[in-house]
Amino acid sequence: MFLTISTTGTPERPATDLGFLLHKHPDRAQTFSTSHGTAHVLYPEASAERCTAALLLEIDPVALVRRGKGKGRGGAPDAALAQYVNDRPYAASSLLAVALATVFKSALRGVCAALPERAASPLPLRIEIPAVPARGGAELVGALFGPLGWTSVEARPVALDERFPQWGESRYVQLVLEGELRLADVLRQLYVLLPVLDGAKHYWVAPDEVDKLLRAGEGWLADHPERKLITSRYLARRWGLTQEAMNRLELVRLAEADDIEVEALDNAVEVDVPAETPDEAAAVAADDAGGDVAEAGDDVAKAPSLAALRRAAILAALRDADASTVLDLGCGQGQLVQALLKDPRFTRVVGVDVSVRALTVAARRLKLDRMGERQAERVSLVQGALTYTDKRIAGYDAAVLSEVVEHVDPPRLPALEYAVFAAARPRTVVVTTPNAEYNVRWETLPAGHVRHSDHRFEWTRAEFRAWAEEVGRRHGYGVTYVPVGDDDPEVGPPTQMAVFAGNTTNEKEGKTG
Asked: Which whole number is the average pLDDT over 366-388?
């Protein structure tokens, strides 16, 4: 396998700076041992005007088969000859990608103590690889490299045999890339896309490959139009790993769009079961474990927790609305989804949350991996942000925003409103949120504090009604209000609930809400 990296320069900024950036001196040929062969780095030309670094990887196909015990490409029992006679010593693949990461480890990370500014700046670069397997042809090569800033992407098909043009073209291309990019970015692109073009990997793909993909794809993969294909092929089409990577890439994309850190989005799981206040944490945990709670030494069970009352109120509102397909928007760890599945009238339940960690907890809570086929058809968990329109959540009878709106920054509330009430537009929307006036009744909650550290605000009853009435007016919903918990005559209930009833047609049953 062979790859060259070329650049041009001036007397002030000589091209031989490439040696500093790659951490390989142009005056020496160097040899490195890799897991499946020997890598050589040499410089066919090195002057102030032009410098070319070449990576030559010598693969021992016999040793490769022995190391893999016949597994991988060409390792099928009925393809014994293919194990020894194949393209692996010649065509760029995951073997060359691993050699790149081994030999140019510091350059891949963009580290260069001698020339840090040069490492951080784009360079005029030309990449040439004589033989690249391209499952998808030259068109796929263009689709993968075209969006990455290259001014020229040339993928010349290699003939099966030049002496017999009637035989047509092989699945290999000669790849030439030209443009001004950071060297580290280029190496990371090649590390990911070479095995993607080949459509195979020479080693077992373990869960840590997701982290490798995201590190190498930082800054370009999340917004790549072919990110799904790239992710699937890089992870050897392992569905579970591909889904995990896609979810994490979506978080990156959303964080970049809002100019915030990913951790600020994926912060839903702080404790196993979220609670309204420190006093209520034990009650909620016990409620999730199986129902009512009782203090130590008490023989009489206490009243259900506020979390249980809230779920009961939501379920009652959905039944009154005659809903059968329900969205739990901001589903967190799946408590409401679990409750919905216990009622057969809800034939389709979808939990949506921006937090991958929360969805992982929800999947464990619901025992999705052990759920029967018929039950599994009723439920799905989807990663997504509620402040973005999403065609996946359109067409449902009802949507629930339970203890969600207070986690949204006020400037983002109009985006949430549009995504739910205008774009998705379910027939019924149920919204619950804390009543700020009731906070004085929580003895352990300091004055002036909100109930949860992630709450951006908490509304009084008047503020909540003003918001709900305006949303209903703008989008054609009537609104009714339901107290949840003890309705204190002075400060109202601990949780306030609004039920939005729209006039959209329920096509399934042919009636209006």
From this structure: 88
Could you tell me if 36 and 160 are in contact, meaning their C-beta atoms sit under 8 angstroms apart? no
pLDDT at 75 over 70: no
Residue 489: how many CA atoms within 13 Å on its side-chain side? 0
pLDDT of 434 over the 90 cut: yes
Backbone angles phi, psi at 169, to 5 degrees: -100, 155
8 A C-beta contact, residue 328 and residue 351: yes
- 258-308: pLDDT as tens digits: 555 555 555 555 433 334 444 444 444 434 433 333 333 444 445 678 899
DSSP reduced 3-state for 511: strand
- 444 phi and psi, to 5 degrees? -90, 0
| C-alpha–C-alpha distance, residues 306 and 316, integer Å | 15
Question: Length of the chain in residues, anyone?
Answer: 513
pTM for the whole structure: 0.59
Q: How far is CA 327 from CA 250, 428, 429, 431, in A?
A: 20, 10, 9, 12
Average pLDDT over residues 487-498: 94
Q: Identify the pLDDT of residue 370.
A: 85
Looking at the DSSP bridge assignments, the partners of residue 165 are none
DSSP classification of residue 217: T
**DSSP letter for each residue of 306-363:** HHHHHHHHHHHHHHHTT--EEEEET-TTSHHHHHHHTSTT--EEEEEES-HHHHHHHH
Q: What value does the mean pLDDT of the chain take?
A: 82
**Phi-psi category of residue 475: left, alpha or beta, with phi > 0 → left and psi -120 to 50 → alpha:** alpha
Contacts of 43 (CB under 8 A, 6+ apart): 19, 26, 27, 51, 52, 53, 54
Cα gap 424→331, rounded to integer Å: 16
Radius of gyration of the chain (CA): 29
Provide the H-helix boundaries in 199-348: 208-216, 227-234, 239-258, 262-265, 278-290, 306-320, 335-341
Check residue 96 and report its DSSP letter.
H
Residues 190-216: pLDDT tens digits? 999 999 998 877 677 777 888 889 888
